[in-house]
Amino acid sequence: MGEESSLVLHGMWASPFGKRVELALKIKGIPFEYVEEDLQNKNPSTLLKYNPVYKKVPVLVHNGNPISESLVILEYIEETWKNHGPALLPQDPYERAQLRFWADFINKQLFEASVKVVMAAGEALEKAIKDLREKLKVVEEHGVKRLLGDGSGPFANGQEVGFVDIVMWSVLGAYKIHEEVLGVKIIDEEETPGVASWLNSLIHHPLTKDILPSKDKVVGLLQYVRHSALSSSAAA
Ligand SMILES: N[C@@H](CCC(=O)N[C@@H](CS)C(=O)NCC(=O)O)C(=O)O
């Protein structure tokens, strides 16, 4: 990257949204600088200045211009570095629309259902798992066939991880650690074999392995989030 060109990702180590951007830049081989933001004490000269609307990470600052919202940032990366590294989206407009549809479903439906799982215990956890599995069945029946059915590779983007793969990994890439901590099965290989094999390929990709925080950190965060959520719901 030349002296006149700068690219800075403002993130937070545990943010799945920030990880999406980190993964996209690494897949495309685009060098960037990383700045860790303190979300408990938001920095007025970085985060609050660059994302005054949502005040959230990630923010990608390209040559001084901030871009917020992880999916908007992924599209920006793809358009700006179109010929740099692998394409994250296909050329065909209909295919692109299909991938955006599933990225949106995973980002909203699966993300929301998986957050409920992390925050619940007892009967509420059983219900949350059931709801998440129902949504995974929708992905299995309608999405996997559409996204991975052509047999061109282990990912929705073929041989390399692309737009919808990044979103799927950011939402469920740590599911095995979640299963261990919660003592429940989240992904049922018999019920949703396509989803299980897709996630398996994503988890074993060298770049995702590199980006996922250490198991100890993920476990610590999960226990902290659960403890806060469960003690505030008990107090309510
Ligand atoms: N829709 C946003 C979500 C970003 C988001 O929720 N970021 C969290 C960290 S995981 C955050 O910055 N939270 C700070 C806050 O809510 O005050 C995106 O896709 O980028």
CATH topology of the largest domain: Glutathione S-transferase Yfyf (Class Pi), Chain A, domain 2
Task: Give the helix proportion (percent range).
Answer: 55-70%
Helix-strand makeup class: alpha+beta
Q: Give the strand order of the largest sheet, numbering strands 1, 2, ... along the chain.
A: 2-1-3-4
Strand content: 5-15%
Provide a count of the helices.
10
Bound molecules: glutathione
Helix-strand sequence: EHEHEEHHHHHHHH
In terms of topology, how is this protein built?
Layout: E1 7-11, H1 16-28, E2 33-36, H2 47-50, E3 59-62, E4 65-68, H3 70-80, H4 93-119, H5 122-148, H6 163-172, H7 175-182, H8 193-203, H9 206-211, H10 215-235
Parallel strand pairs: 1-2
Antiparallel strand pairs: 1-3, 3-4
The chain binds glutathione.
Family: Belongs to the GST superfamily. Tau family.
EC number: 2.5.1.18
GO molecular function: glutathione transferase activity
Write up this protein.
With 236 residues, the protein is α+β, with helices and mostly antiparallel strands. The protein has helices at 16-28, 47-50, 70-80, 93-119, 122-148, 163-172, 175-182, 193-203, 206-211, 215-235, and strands spanning 7-11, 33-36, 59-62, 65-68. It has a four-stranded mixed beta sheet, with helices on one face. Helix 1 (16-28) links the parallel strand 1 and strand 2 (33-36). The protein is globular. The relative contact order is 0.12. The model has no long low-confidence stretch (mean pLDDT 94). Bound molecules: glutathione. Glutathione binds at residues 12, 15, 17, 39, 55-58, 69-71. It catalyses: RX + glutathione = an S-substituted glutathione + a halide anion + H(+). Its main location: cytoplasm. This is Glutathione S-transferase.
